[in-house]
Design a protein that fits this description.
The protein is of the alpha+beta class and 238 residues long. Helices cover 41% and strands 13% of the residues. It has a single domain, classed as Cytochrome P450 (Cytochrome p450, Orthogonal Bundle), CATH 1.10.630.10. β6 and β7 form a beta hairpin. Bound molecules: protoporphyrin IX containing FE (HEM).
Length: 238
């Protein structure tokens, strides 16, 4: 982080990105962010933004490979849209089903599978009395698999997110409230365009047999997922 920040300072140009904004930021007394604060902000963005989004993409690709009907609908949309070209922002309006696939992968396997809150005063929650300062952990993975909220909850069904479907407070892959993810749209768009680009050109199949065991570390990851690609545009030899 320090090297990246030093490089930005040395060049002194506005790169039009978040780090340039942070370097230019001044508080009410005209002071810039301290070196440590800058590094912490950059580290937070990289940590919060990279593995979450890559995990969403990895789950999406795996789930698509395991559900031929979903794969067929996805390929039909991609063939009519970017048609084998890298998907770009301008294609987004043509990719509603691709976005639904990402949304449904985020429901079944939320990368941030648990979020925490600290109570600021004593309270009763779900029948339990909690003192001030208690750590409350909310497991989004379990919440998003509650059958009364999502019927047949373990089924991978991107049509749950068809236009007009409302899930609101039951669907929380980006959290809720004051610390809700500020990168929600960025992450969703990035995963949608990456899925469109990869699945538009390649049909992927898991290289190994057997179910995936989700790995609940900081991010809920499928772990290494070797996949065998077949070129959909140029044929097997392409
Ligand atoms: C699919 C991708 C992503 C998922 C699933 C995700 C999920 C989350 C969740 C659940 C939280 C915590 C919310 C809470 O405690 O209520 C969070 C916070 C955060 N996310 Fe994301 N995120 C994603 C992508 C991104 C991206 C791309 C960025 C930045 C470019 C980002 C930046 C952050 C930051 C800075 C926070 C901390 C917010 C705070 O504490 O005030 N996230 N994210």
């Amino acid at each position: 982080m320090a090297a990246i920040i030093a490089d930005y300072r040395a060049r002194g140009v506005d790169h039009g990105d978040v780090l340039s904004l942070l370097l230019a930021a001044r508080d009410e007394d005209g002071r810039p962010l301290a070196e440590r604060e800058l590094a912490d902000q950059v580290a937070t963005l990289v940590l919060a933004g990279a593995e979450t989004t890559s995990s969403a993409l990895a789950w999406s690709l795996r789930l698509v490979a395991e559900h031929p009907e979903v794969e067929r609908k996805l390929h039909a949309e991609l063939d009519a849209g970017p048609a084998g070209e890298p998907a770009r922002w301008q294609h987004l309006a043509q990719l509603p089903y691709t976005a639904q696939v990402v949304s449904e992968a985020l429901r079944l396997y939320p990368p941030a599978w648990a979020v925490s809150r600290t109570t600021t005063r004593p309270l009763e929650l779900g029948g339990a009395r909690l003192p001030a300062g208690a750590l409350v952990v909310c497991c989004l993975y379990l919440l998003q698999r509650r059958p009364e909220l999502f019927p047949d909850p373990t089924r991978f069904d991107p049509d749950r997110f068809a236009p007009g479907a409302v899930h609101r407070d039951a669907y929380l892959p980006f959290g809720l409230g004051a610390t809700r993810c500020p990168g929600d749209r960025f992450g969703t768009v990035e995963a949608t365009l990456a899925l469109a680009t990869i699945a538009g050109r390649w049909r992927l199949r898991p290289a190994a047999e057997g179910p995936v065991r989700p790995q609940p570390r900081l991010v809920l990851s499928p772990g290494p997922q070797p996949m065998t690609p077949t070129d959909r545009i140029n044929g097997p030899a392409g």
